[in-house]
Specification:
By secondary structure, this protein is of the alpha+beta class. It has 7 helices and 11 strands. Helix content is 30%, strand content 23%.
Length: 218
């Protein structure tokens, strides 16, 4: 199985989800997608994480991002778990959750836990770690994050990366550390200062010949 790297095509697969069967590439369509895994249903960190993502649904919609979760349990378990998630977090979870009890998709995306010996099911089969994949409309993987099962994810950071990627695809810019939507951005190194002054009407600040800032095009 080839390694998953930034820029590679996200592997296609068929799966059962809480919103019906899908073929992953068809599900992506012309959208951005966040695929994120969870070790198991009815676990405390996963329950709070999924509630957080459900609460951010409008933020994902505004960015043309479809969210899809994965957990290593049966579909029937997922359905019961969603009721808990909605109750505990006071949300209405709308995105699909993939049922992956045989870990086939988890293995395809290298999500299985090889670190925490307690993160296994009753048969000793590893559950997943907390993986995140951001996939663009061309089906290319643009970000890979892996958190240990014991640590919940920062979805504000994941949204920040989506903003950076989408902005960089539209404009010839990069974003600095801790950048957030609305902050100044960096003129791409391939753009000369002379050209930058023409294509960025809000102005260009030359800090160093290799570091030019311009107000965010957002």
């Amino acid at each position: 199985m080839p390694s998953l790297r930034l820029g590679t095509t996200a592997p296609d697969f068929e799966a059962q989800t809480t919103k019906g069967p899908i073929k992953f590439h068809d599900f992506i369509g012309e959208n951005w997608v966040i695929l994120f895994s969870h070790p198991a249903d009815f676990t405390p960190v996963c329950t709070t994480e999924l509630g957080l993502v459900a609460a951010l649904q409008e933020d994902f919609d505004a960015r043309n991002v479809k969210v899809i979760g994965l957990s290593a349990n049966e579909l029937e378990s997922h359905e019961k778990w969603i009721a808990d998630i909605n109750e505990v977090n006071n949300v209405d979870l709308k995105f699909p959750i993939i049922a992956d009890p045989k870990r086939e998709i988890s293995a395809l995306y290298d999500m299985l836990d090889y670190q925490d010996i307690t993160n296994v099911d009753g048969k000793g089969i590893p559950f997943t770690v907390r993986s995140v994949f951001i996939i663009d409309p061309k089906k290319a993987i643009r970000l890979i994050l892996t958190y240990p099962a014991s640590t919940g994810r920062n979805f504000d950071e994941i949204l920040r990366v989506v903003d950076s990627l989408q902005l960089g695809d539209k404009h010839r810019i990069t974003t600095p550390g801790n950048w957030k939507k609305g902050d100044d951005v960096i003129v791409h190194p391939s753009v000369s200062t002379e050209e930058a002054e023409k294509i960025f009407p809000k102005g260009v600040k030359v800090v160093k010949p290799y570091l030019r800032l311009t107000p965010s095009p957002f």
